[in-house]
Design a protein that fits this description.
The structure is a single chain. With 153 residues, the protein is of the alpha+beta class. It is 37% helix and 9% strand. It has helices at residues 2-6, 57-62, 67-82, 97-102, 115-124, 135-147; strands at residues 9-10, 19-21, 27-29, 36-37, 43-44, 64-65. The radius of gyration is 15 Å and the shape is globular. The two termini are 21 Å apart. 26% of the residues are buried.
């Protein structure tokens, strides 16, 4: 994702179902059906099928997509991984997602998730897009965590 965003692309469908793992256990993002080259700071769309439970509040409300909305979705992807495959927001109806997120509610820390990983998820889920990290920041933070990985992860 760091590579895609550095080249000016937004994916718009960052989710565990779109991560491919090769024989060397290297994860790569797939399914570029919603991917777009950003020629402006924000990409706006109307209509089409979108992954509502993975979308940032600004994307749900205004159909605006940026690298920062991909960051939000990456946080949801982390939730999927550390909850061992739980469907995000399974308790929320799609039509209620905007109100749910705007009220400040977020998924609880998964049972099998370390506090420092959940903290990264929470950074990705900041309400204001400008307060969310960049993929380069996430790459560094997750790389540091992996270098100290124990059975906790």
């Amino acid at each position: 994702m760091d590579f895609l965003s550095s080249k000016g692309y937004i994916h718009r469908d960052v989710a565990a179902r779109n991560v491919l793992v090769d024989e060397n256990k290297v994860a790569k993002i797939g399914d570029f059906g919603l991917c777009r080259l950003m020629d402006t700071a924000t990409y706006t769309t109307r209509g089409g099928r979108l992954p509502i439970k993975w979308m940032a509040p600004e994307s749900l409300q205004n159909y605006q997509f940026t690298t920062k909305s991909d960051i939000w979705s990456f946080g949801v992807l982390l939730y999927e991984l550390f909850s061992l495959g739980d469907v995000p927001y399974s308790w929320v109806q799609p039509a209620d997602m905007i109100d749910y997120l705007r009220s400040g509610k977020r998924p609880d820390k998964p049972e099998h998730c370390a506090d420092n990983v959940y903290s990264i998820m929470q950074e990705c889920w900041k309400d204001k897009p400008d307060e969310r990290p960049f993929f380069s920041d996430l790459k560094m933070k997750l790389g540091t965590l992996l270098s100290y990985a124990t059975e906790e992860y």
